[in-house]
Amino acid sequence: SAGMAYEALNNAGHLGKRLFVILNDNEMSIAPPVGAMSKYLSRLYAEKPLQDFKSIAKSALELLPPPFREGAERAKHLVKGMVVGGTLFEELGFSYVGPIDG
């Protein structure tokens, strides 16, 4: 069930182990999706312009010398935390990459 899946994610994040989690939203369900999780995932997927900007910024960061790159990375996390907050997955201890159309 979804509750068991959430508890597994919570436990995995707590353990800090390397783990790949793939959320496959194939938009198929017995009934229309409802609730807070559905709304949250819809917002995550809808932020394509932000994903494009992040990709461009990451490429630009790789051009900086290491000391500047580390400082820029820290500044990025600080600003992101103040403005956006973490995604649910980041709050559970995961590094979130996505959405990916594939």
Mind explaining what this structure looks like?
The structure is a single chain. The chain is an all-alpha fold and 102 residues long. The longest helix has 18 residues, at 66-83. The protein has one domain. It has helices at residues 2-15, 36-46, 48-61, 66-83, 88-91. The model has no long low-confidence stretch (mean pLDDT 75).
What's the arrangement of secondary structure elements?
Blueprint: H1 2-15, H2 36-46, H3 48-61, H4 66-83, H5 88-91
- Share of residues in helices: 55-70%
Structural shape: globular
**Classification by helices and strands:** mainly alpha
Uncertain regions spanning at least 5 consecutive residues: none
CA-based gyration radius: 16 Å
Largest sheet: none
- How many structural domains does the protein architecture include? 1
List the helices and strands in order.
HHHHH
Continuous helix count: 5
Strand tally is 0
Distance between the termini: 25 Å
* Percentage of β-strand residues: under 5%
Calculate the mean pLDDT score and round it: 75
